[in-house]
């Protein structure tokens, strides 16, 4: 290599030029980034593939099949034949479809506020240092670990109007209990209460984890400023729990709109149509009336309703959520 003649060249400029990083062409940089992403994907794929296969096989493919079947007439016996939008047109004329949506919305309004309040209250009670907290946390989560059908059978017996445990306890107190599952005014609240009992402890875990992630220095600063316990909860805890609250509300609302097993075991849509939620109506249309096309169209309508409600929740929490605490 021939020596470089630096005569007549500014030394400072030469030093700055030597310190500048070598520029890589844009095309070469893009190829390197693509190869890096490919290596990362190759490493992650064996870990993601089992879950991805389950999502594709048990979620995406059934959704596509239901979407296709909504444009066909099919009764499980004869071959399906094209119906176009006839299933949607027929569904729009069915009063029981809109009534089922109304009952489902009523159930959601019964279930979500009470369940969220109970879960938040339990998290506040357990967010402290005292003996036996681990045992209480396990006990509150145990209902979630139980099978919904088995729990519905037990609660059906407890709320039986003739020989149920609830009415027996009321009789011991000198009160006459109603026919809980046989009355149109109490059947749906009882079903919602069973869901509250089963899922409140599970949601409590998320609220408890969110509370424990809040820095203690924020509470100390609020106390120095003279904030009491209620003000600290409203001004510190609750705003910083918005990400957790968003997650809990979204998942609970989706689950509440899809309620089926508890209704099927406890009331089967009755009395009358007091608990005839949309998922039970879809089941009845498909497997009792053998109208798979209309049931598929109803499923897509339910999907659209859940999507709209979920988007509304994200929009509401968009500017109310803090994900980092500095």
Distance between the termini: 55 Å
Secondary structure tally, helices: 14
CATH architecture of the largest domain: Orthogonal Bundle
- List segments where confidence is low: pLDDT < 50 over at least 5 consecutive residues: 4-9
- Classification by helices and strands: mainly alpha
The third-level CATH topology of the largest domain is MetI-like fold
Shape: flat
Q: Give the fraction of residues assigned to helices.
A: over 70%
Please state the CA-atom Rg, rounded to the nearest Å. Answer: 29 Å
**Can you identify the CATH superfamily of the largest domain?**
MetI-like
Quickly count the domains.
2
| Mean pLDDT figure | 88
Q: How many extended strands?
A: 2
- Main β-sheet: number of strands, strand sense, barrel status? 2 strands, antiparallel
CATH class of the largest domain: Mainly Alpha
- The topology string of helices and strands comes to HHEEHHHHHHHHHHHH
Instruction: Estimate what percentage of residues fall within beta strands.
Output: under 5%
Strands of the widest sheet, in order across it, are: 1-2
Describe the structure.
- The chain is mainly α.
- The protein folds into 2 domains: 23-69, no CATH class; 91-317, MetI-like (MetI-like fold, Orthogonal Bundle).
- The chain contains 14 helices and 2 strands.
- It has helices at 11-19, 26-69, 86-92, 95-126, 133-145, 148-158, 165-172, 187-212, 216-224, 229-240, 242-257, 261-266, 278-287, 292-317; strands at residues 72-73, 81-82.
- A two-stranded antiparallel sheet has the order 1-2.
- α4 packs across α13 and α13 (278-287) runs antiparallel to α14 (292-317).
- The radius of gyration is 29 Å and the shape is flat.
């Amino acid at each position: 290599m021939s020596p470089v003649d630096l005569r007549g060249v500014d030394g400072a400029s030469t030093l700055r030029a030597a310190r500048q990083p070598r520029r890589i062409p844009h095309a070469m940089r893009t190829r390197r980034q693509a190869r890096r992403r490919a290596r990362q994907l190759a490493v992650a794929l064996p870990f993601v593939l089992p879950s991805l296969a389950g999502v594709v096989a048990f979620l995406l493919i059934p959704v596509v099949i239901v979407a296709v079947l909504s444009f066909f007439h099919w009764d499980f016996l004869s071959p399906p034949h094209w119906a176009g939008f006839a299933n949607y047109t027929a569904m729009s004329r069915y009063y029981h479809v809109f009534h089922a949506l109304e009952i489902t919305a009523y159930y959601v309004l019964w279930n979500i506020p009470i369940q969220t309040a109970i879960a938040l209250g339990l998290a506040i009670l357990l967010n402290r240092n005292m003996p036996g907290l681990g045992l209480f946390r396990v006990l509150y989560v145990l209902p979630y670990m139980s099978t919904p059908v088995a729990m519905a059978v037990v609660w059906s017996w407890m709320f039986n109007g003739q020989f149920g445990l609830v009415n027996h306890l009321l009789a011991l107190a000198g009160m006459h209990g109603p026919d809980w599952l046989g009355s149109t005014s109490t059947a749906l609240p009882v079903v919602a209460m069973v869901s509250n009992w089963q899922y409140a402890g599970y949601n409590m875990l998320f609220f408890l984890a969110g509370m424990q992630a809040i820095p203690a220095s924020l509470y100390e600063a609020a106390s120095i400023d003279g904030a009491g316990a209620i003000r600290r909860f409203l001004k510190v805890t609750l705003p910083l729990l918005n990400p957790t609250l968003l997650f809990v509300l979204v998942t609970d609302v989706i689950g509440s709109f899809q309620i089926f097993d508890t209704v099927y075991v406890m009331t089967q849509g009755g009395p009358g149509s007091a608990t005839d939620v949309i998922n039970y109506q879809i089941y009845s249309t498909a497997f009792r009336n053998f109208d798979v096309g209309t049931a598929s169209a109803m499923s897509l309508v339910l999907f659209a309703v859940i999507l709209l409600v979920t988007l509304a929740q994200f929009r509401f929490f968009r500017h109310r959520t803090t994900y980092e605490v500095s």
